[in-house]
Design brief:
single chain; about 200 residues; alpha+beta; 7-stranded antiparallel beta sheet; 7 strands; globular
Length: about 200
């Protein structure tokens, strides 16, 4: 079927999108406070389709497993929050294993990217935080019998609304983790990757 895009243009656009995802990876890796992210590469970044939440491009520096999983995270955000309610500057926060997550320490963020006033794609990333609360530091305890003992469970919620931080939500999260100053730094790393992704998408 002829989609109206010649192979050369398709290759250039594909390469450009993959490069953007890789730049997001490197930004997150270099700015994260968590050594699990910066040293062990337990993170990922990707670009996801606006209507279905399916993978468009992925970075190659992070954990390959997360790329497919983040598709389900993006789709969970789409299910919970109507696209008509999403605005430029919104950022969604989620680690719930039952909403496209893995385990609670893998914290994900999803940001709708708008171009000329229209929702164009979603940017998403995920990083393993060394702690998300729970009965033991790090969240791994053989004696746990339910998810509530493992740490703070976050369904898809807005961390930023039209670029404005939800201070109450941030305080709630940081009050339930060990070494909150480092987790604040990891949040900034997630957001820095989004800034790079948005800037490069606009250029492309």
């Amino acid at each position: 079927m002829n989609m109206g895009v010649d192979p050369l243009t398709l290759a250039v656009v594909r390469g450009g999108l993959e490069q953007i995802a890789e730049e997001m990876d490197l930004t997150m890796q270099r700015t994260a406070f968590s050594p699990v992210i910066s040293e062990a590469n337990d993170f990922a970044n990707g670009i996801y389709e606006a209507s279905t939440g399916e993978v468009v491009a992925q970075g190659r520096w992070g954990l390959a497993l997360f790329i497919g999983v983040m598709q389900f995270t993006t789709q969970a955000v789409l299910k919970e929050i109507c696209k008509a309610e999403m605005e430029d500057g919104d950022v969604f926060f989620v680690n719930d294993p039952y909403s496209g997550g893995t385990h609670l320490m893998d914290v994900g963020m999803v940001k709708p990217f708008f171009y000329e006033g229209e929702l164009f794609v979603f940017l998403a990333n995920r990083g393993h935080w060394p702690d998300i609360g729970g009965m033991v530091p790090g969240g791994f305890a053989a004696s746990t019998t339910e998810v509530f003992q493992e740490g703070l469970r976050i369904p898809p919620v807005k961390l930023y609304s039209r670029g404005k931080l939800n201070e109450g939500l941030l305080r709630l999260v940081l009050a339930n983790v060990r070494v909150p100053s480092e987790r604040r730094g990891d949040i900034q790393a997630h957001l820095a990757a989004f800034e790079v992704g948005e800037h490069q998408l606009k250029k492309l």
